[in-house]
Amino acid sequence: MTSGWGNNFQSLSSRKPADTVAQVQEVVAQTGSMRGLLAAGLHRSYGDSALNSGGTLVALTGLNQIEIDRPSRIAILGAGATIRDLEVAALAQSLFPPVVPGTGYVTIGGAVAADIHGKSHHRTGAFSQCLRRIKLLLSSGAIADYSPTDIEFWATVGGLGLTGIILEVEMELREVSSNSVTVLEKRVKNLDEMIALLDQSDSDFEHTVAWIDLSGDYRGRGVVSLGNYGDSSPHASSQMKGRAPSTRGLSLPTLGGMNFITPLTVRAFNEFWYRKPLKDGAASIVKYMHPLDGVNNWNNVYGRSGFLQYQFVIDLGKEEIFAKLFAGLRALKAASFLGVLKKFGEQSNSPLSFPRRGWTLTLDYSVTVPGLEKFLREFDEELAAAGGRIYLIKDSRLDPGLISAMYPRINEWRSTRNLMDPKGLWQSDQARRLQLC
Amino acid sequence: MLNGFKSPGRIALIGGESEIGLSIVAHLAEDNAREVILVGRTGEFGMDITEKGARERVVHDLFGNGDLDLAIVAVGLLGNDATKSPADNLLAAMDVNYLSTVHFIELLSERMKEQAHGTILVISSFAQVRPRDDNFGYGSTKAGLDFYARGLASKLKGSGVTIKILRPGFVKSKMTAGMALAPFAITAQECGKYGVQALRSKGLVTWAPHILKYVAVIFKALPSRIFSRISHR
User: Fold this and answer.
1) B5–A401: do the CB atoms touch at under 8 Å?
2) d(Cα A6, Cα A16) in Å, to the nearest integer?
3) Which residues of chain A have a CB within 8 Å of the CB of B117?
4) May I ask the CATH architecture of the domain A180-405?
5) Whole domain around residue B35: which residue ranges?
6) DSSP annotation string for A280-292
7) Which has more confidence, A337 or A66?
8) Could you report the predicted ipTM of this complex, rounded to two decimals?
9) Fewer CB within 10 Å: N-end or C-end of chain B?
């Protein structure tokens, strides 16, 4: 059985590891289109994006080469290499990926397929903005290289692995003068203050994000975190340039399958988190970028039934939708301890890429919250009517009828995809559930 | 596909006119919008379930437009048609309740195994607990169905496909209109709630209402002389 990071799906499929391109080609040649094939990485997508019930998963974590050409700042990366490995290799040469997500434990292939974003989106755009080339294995068995001038490139970016198997990418890294970031944290009392502070900070900071407390009175108090790449003095810790950052985080056992996330525990945690001392100064770049990686298997706190992450983006000027959302969640007593608010910059050219100019809010909920399914379905309709959309790589419950409102270029993506995969080999449970293909 | 709340996206109700079946579907629809296919005597998926070819065609068509997440098998004849002889009534009930339904479930489960997920909810009956003079013919067909469903549930372990059995007692519906109410009678709407519980429960069998589980134990334990007196009641 395979699950996404949210543990709310259990899927049965045949899993085949492939450590070389030839092995991947062999799996492709052997697999039929009935239940199809999907590339799998570290299964950090929350829902069913990387599941393929009744079909085949080809595990690409062995395809993990990292080659960096220092003068040109170009990295050639295997699809199975992780963001974390890339960061370590890049820092050794005073480089860093311009876009990294909240966890370092995602593969490059997954990062492309989701067109991931990070705290730098207002400056750098999404992951695809740093890519120069994607090497893709097509369902015909042929291997093709696509660059940002090709429509196949943009169909693959954010394309959820449904256009082909990403084998390798060429990516441009940025210069950093140290392995530290200068961090400034500020406490805010409510959502309006948070929005105002994020608004005015974007021009001065390369990294901006806010933790938002959605429990108690749901006013949206929180902590805004602002960061810039550090100056030349390296961060004094074990994470010196070129040394692997410690991966020994605190490990969370399965806790007997129980769900520890209740309104009470969330409120207590959030109170503590809101009051904790604010940072003002240098911090480790890796720790700053990946706060979620401090606790391994943190997803276990939600117990056996699992949880879902709900992330959406809404245009600037339509902030009134937050009040409706917060009121509804408060009525359900649905408390979230991982609320994150961020202002996005410009969108990429990809039809299915999620980030675009506006506010994005991310929330985590146990699937056992009574009435949550119905509430989110109704909220989705309001969101779609207001021109917003949800992030597909985190979705596990969207109504397929809302896809075309949220992603108006889906049909353009579908026709490119059909040309790239006429026999329909690439399949996933999410693609079936949302009727994407 | 099921969504992250384990709510099915495509549901087929076999016995599209069944009040119990429709009630289960209505309860499921409260939380989420779903595609429901009604397989009854008429309509796009209409069939005479006693025709082998019709069963094969309908099962093929049910999977033609995407995965099927849940099939509710709510086909049943009491075998009390006053225009038919007792022998003909028995034959009709055997054909519909057991032979055709079991074959249909077998076909469904084969297709669900290919998709490696799916649930079949089989509507059995309290009548299969012990033969009573007034309904042992019907009870025998449901006993056969129940027996098969339990066997299939065991065989399907590890395949991703799940079988659930709902055993209602007396359900007030069109099917039982005019019959004397039995103890613990429930409405079709109430029975629908138990159907949803059956889908969410970890166990194989759900009784509707739950107390029938214990009534069944007593029924089975009673000496035949006493049981026969009760069933003649």
Assistant:
1) no
2) 23
3) 11-12, 53-54
4) 3-Layer(aba) Sandwich (3.40)
5) 10-231
6) EEEEEHHHHH-GG
7) A66
8) 0.89
9) C
